[in-house]
Write a structure and sequence with these properties.
The complex is a heterotetramer of chains A (102), B (124), C (111) and D (404).
Chain A (H helix, E strand, L loop, with lengths): L1 E3 H4 L3 E3 L5 E13 L2 E9 L1 H7 L3 H11 L8 E4 L3 E2 L7 E2 L11
Antiparallel strand pairs in A: 2-3, 3-4, 4-5, 6-7
Chain B lengths: L2 H4 L4 E3 L5 E11 L7 E7 L1 H8 L3 H11 L8 E4 L3 E4 L3 E3 L3 H4 L3 H9 L14
Parallel strand pairs in B: 1-6
Antiparallel strand pairs in B: 1-2, 2-3, 3-4, 5-6
Helix pairs in contact in B: 2-3
Chain D lengths: L1 H17 L2 H14 L4 H25 L3 H44 L3 H18 L2 H12 L3 H9 L4 H6 L10 H15 L2 H13 L7 H29 L10 H4 L11 H32 L13 H19 L4 H14 L1 H11 L3 H4 L6 H28 L1
The chains are: A alpha+beta (102), B alpha+beta (124), C mainly alpha (111), D mainly alpha (404).
């Protein structure tokens, strides 16, 4: 089954028991010989900062505001993501055992 | 490598360092429970307008058929052709053969070369 | 009122510049005609919005007189006739001062 | 030696971009109506522009990507497309105003009305882009643009009172007619911080094949070039304040503005004004058409360069050909260039945030700029400019209606 990566961008992801986790904002992949394996999906607001490569801008502001909230990036391994219906991606695990990418 | 930040919308450069448009989309192949792989880079209009409003795909393909180079399916480059992913994405392809430059050649031949001083495509 | 004074000043300045031979004839004629048309257009609109008790009769006469002067000057440019042009220019500046006084009196009434 | 020639990029960007029908009309109107009081707006616009132009040049020199390349690559196609629509509409209106400026300059010189000049002028601008190279445009426009120094000569000859000129560099509110004052301030800022200048400058840095060694040169060019442009605008304002204001002459049409220097430089004033407008607007028309074509080409990844033959960058050449010919149409239909100018200045202010916000992200991007990222000073300036641009965006439309 073929999916358009750019259309997956920004779609909401729900975990195994239907809880909203966040939006897909980035895909981590590895070059493997002639092809490119998708390793993990990055979900959450600060994944956007990753995409804009704006950490050098955001980190000082974060230090000034001393806010912890920004750290909500989830790195979902490809095995835990069920993309059978690209419009409603679902996790195969509950959101609490997701580990933080940071 | 981050797909969106490092590949999507990046400038595509062919073997002879000539610009051939930007990556409008990426196609990911999903097996039953095999690891997903990015198989193709998509270039060209329809994929772009899809990202603004899905309904625009039909409209843009219809418009493209009214005039200009007749091309059915969008231009896709197999990922195996990707040489390096840096500030730009370098591809081991010949730009003209991939069809990415159809519009460029069509406008060059039908409009630009008709105007005096427009210069001419030496190869043709 | 400001735009009336502005167009009168435009006509005056264009006239003086033409007298010292620093501007082309066609430009001067076109600018004088433009000033005349604008004065006509603004003039009509002006009387509707005048506050009561203002001596509108003398304002109206001053405006029409200055418009005629500008029109005459525009025609004179083609005949390269400086002396008459100079007298018209002086009477135009007289109109200008009169209109300015009327404007000040209107402003005084408005406060 | 080559780097001194590069100084021309700064001068052309500023003379062509900064000093054009928008900045001259708004400065003349401000001077004629409020005397020196709006000088601060030109100063503020110039300072913001110096930083934004320096950053555009630095990004291009270090990363070999222009602002538009980076904007598409970082923010994705939908955001890019949104900015493209906004920017093309506003820049097109300014282009129409520039062609109007050139046609009007020819009208006051020859007496033939401006609609007749619209098409020949736009064909001449097109011909220069079609056949000319980037350095020809760059050096030609800046040399011709030097005639605009006559504004400075006129301002000095009218003998301004320097203490009040200095004191009006601090913002102050007039006692009467605040709406029009606000509208003129917004228009002056819109005329000076015009986005097409940044797109042209960063593309120019690539056309001139700048690299990291040009960073300090870039600062000098941005600083000197924009100050040169800002200084000229101030001269126009001062000249209007001294020559037109005492007579109560307000600049509502182009022929009125043409009288600006007739008293200060009796013999040549009128002709110098016409020539200054002719060359400054010509340089600006070139810059805007190229900026729009660069925007399309870089955004969609086509090949682009003024030094290539049109057939080698067909879509790039196609875009500027269509744009420049379309821009002549409104003038042929007798649309008044001054009205178009004022509208385009207000719309520039209204769409400013779209052009400035990306700067904050792009100039802090380690991948593009590495250690040449923004220091805290430049970031602070960008933050202030973003604040100003949002304020401008909010008040420009209502002010256009009330004060315009």
């Amino acid at each position: 089954m073929d999916i358009n990566v750019e259309l997956l961008l920004g779609t909401k992801v729900y975990d195994a028991n239907g809880e909203k986790v966040g939006r897909i904002e980035e895909f981590r992949a590895e070059q493997d010989g002639d092809s490119c394996r998708v390793e993990a999906y990055l979900i959450g607001a600060s994944a956007v900062i990753q995409r804009l490569s704006a950490w050098t801008l955001v980190r000082p502001i974060q230090r000034v505001l001393r806010s912890r909230k920004i750290y909500s990036v989830f790195e979902v391994r490809w095995q835990d993501m069920d993309l059978s219906d690209p419009r409603r991606p679902r996790l195969r695990i509950a959101s609490k055992d997701l580990r933080h990418a940071r | 490598m981050h797909l969106i930040r490092d590949v999507l919308d990046k400038q595509l450069i062919d073997r002879e360092d000539c610009k051939m448009g930007r990556a409008s989309g990426l196609i990911m192949q999903l097996g039953e429970n095999t690891q997903p792989r990015v198989t193709h880079i998509v270039i060209g209009g329809p994929a772009l307008w899809m990202r603004i409003r899905p309904g625009l795909r039909k409209l843009s393909t219809k418009l493209a058929h009214l005039w200009g180079p007749k091309r059915k399916e969008p231009v896709t480059i197999p990922w195996s052709r990707v040489k390096t992913v840096g500030k730009d994405v370098n591809l081991d392809v010949e730009a003209k053969e991939t069809g990415a430059l159809d519009w460029e050649l069509w406008i060059a031949r039908h409009i630009i070369e008709r105007i005096p001083g427009g210069g001419s495509k030496e190869e043709e | 009122m400001d735009s009336v004074i502005s167009w009168l000043a435009t006509a005056g300045m264009a006239g003086r510049a033409w007298l010292n031979h620093t501007t082309p004839d066609k430009y001067t004629r076109q600018t004088l005609e433009l000033s005349h048309d604008s004065l006509l257009e603004i003039g009509n609109g002006l009387f509707k919005s005048l506050p009561a008790g203002v001596d509108s009769a003398s304002l109206d006469s001053a405006l029409t007189r200055s418009r005629e002067h500008v029109a005459l000057m525009a025609r004179l440019v083609d005949q390269k006739d400086s002396p008459d042009f100079r007298t018209l220019l002086d009477s135009l500046s007289a109109d200008e001062t009169l209109v300015k006084q009327l404007a000040d009196s209107i402003e005084a009434k408005e406060q | 030696m080559k780097k001194i020639l590069q100084l021309t990029l700064g001068i052309v960007t500023s003379v062509g971009g900064f000093l054009e029908i928008g900045s001259v009309t708004t400065a003349a109107q401000a001077g004629a109506r409020f005397g020196y009081q709006l000088l601060w707006a030109i100063l503020l616009g110039t300072l913001c522009l110096i930083f934004l132009i320096e950053m555009s040049g630095r990004l291009a020199a270090v990363s070999k990507h222009t602002i538009v390349d980076a904007m598409r690559e970082r923010f994705g196609f939908p955001f890019f497309f949104f900015v493209l629509i906004g920017m093309v509409i506003v820049a097109f209106l300014v282009l129409v105003a520039e062609l109007g400026g050139i046609s009007f300059a020819l009208q006051i010189l020859t007496g033939i009305r401006f609609p007749w000049w619209a098409l020949p002028v736009s064909l001449l601008v097109w011909l220069l882009m079609w056949k000319g190279t980037f350095s020809l445009i760059e050096n030609g426009a800046s040399l011709l643009g030097l005639v605009t120094i006559s504004f400075v000569v006129a301002a000095f000859k009218l003998g301004p009172d320097w203490s009040s000129v200095g004191s009006s560099l601090i913002p102050s509110l007039p006692d009467s007619d605040k709406a029009n004052y606000g509208f003129l301030a917004v228009s002056i800022l819109g005329a000076s911080i015009s986005p097409y200048l940044m797109y042209f400058y960063s593309s120019g840095a690539i056309e001139d094949k700048w690299d990291r060694s040009y960073i300090t040169m870039n600062r000098i060019i941005a600083g000197f070039g924009m100050t040169f442009g800002g200084f000229l605008s101030m001269a126009v304002l001062v000249a209007a304040a001294l020559a037109l204001r005492p007579k109560g002459l307000q600049v509502d049409t182009f022929p009125q503005a043409a009288l600006l220097m007739t008293t200060a430089l009796p013999r040549w004033g009128f002709y110098l004004f016409a020539l200054s407008m002719l060359f400054a607007c010509f340089g600006a028309a070139l810059e805007i058409s190229l900026a729009i074509a660069y925007f399309f080409a870089q955004g969609f990844g086509w090949s682009w360069s003024e030094d290539l033959e049109p057939s080698q960058d067909a879509r790039f050449a196609f875009v500027y050909t269509i744009i420049i010919l379309l821009a002549a149409v409104p003038l042929m239909l007798r649309v008044d260039p001054i009205k178009v100018t004022m509208l385009s200045m207000a719309l520039t202010s209204a769409s400013l945030p779209l052009a400035i916000v990306p700067f904050l992200f792009l100039m802090n991007d380690p991948i593009y700029l590495g250690k040449h990222r923004n220091g805290w000073i430049s970031n602070a300036v960008v933050a202030i400019v973003i604040l100003i641009s949002f304020v401008l965006a909010i008040i420009s439309i209502p002010l256009q209606i009330i004060g315009g």
